Amino acid sequence: MRIFVRVFTFFVIILVSGAANLPPFQEGNRTLNIMNADTEAKVKAAFIFNFTRFITWKSDKNDAPLRIVIFGSEKINAFLKAYVEEKNLSSQISVISVNTPPDGKENINLLFIDNSKERFSGEILRQLSGKNVLTVSDIEDFVLQGGIIGMYNEGGRIKLAINLSEANKSGLKISAKLLEVAKVIK
Q: What is the DSSP annotation of 128-175?
């Protein structure tokens, strides 16, 4: 089983890296981004899915499913649910979409805040600060605002930024492999 997980993880990283590294397309004097909204949502969902493999949460319940909450993006929610179901991990990972900002009282392991919900991010981050919750977003400068992992599009590629001090404060252990591919903010 361990070999399968390692091979699967390696395959998904290669797949996501390939999709995330689509080169911009040159047309005359303007650069067109090949990554459309669906592709970008799929790549972000794949990253979120893979974060579950490279992050360690402190937990007193090893048999409880990992709970991922998506705030503000039905596309990412749908793609992430499809990944979980396709890999038969529904008993291990629960994906939930919410329309109202989480208040920090829910049992959440990973929270994705879509950039369309930026107006709520400050309050959410204050409520979750120091709690064992991985906060992820595509909001600009999310990690500088206290988020743990930020996704940003640079030249048609999805890149990662990680706020290591916030991760440590939240009791999360981030794999060195994930830190290698991200811009680390200390």
A: HTTSS-EEEE-STTGGGGT-SEEEEEETTEEEEEEEHHHHHHTT-EE-
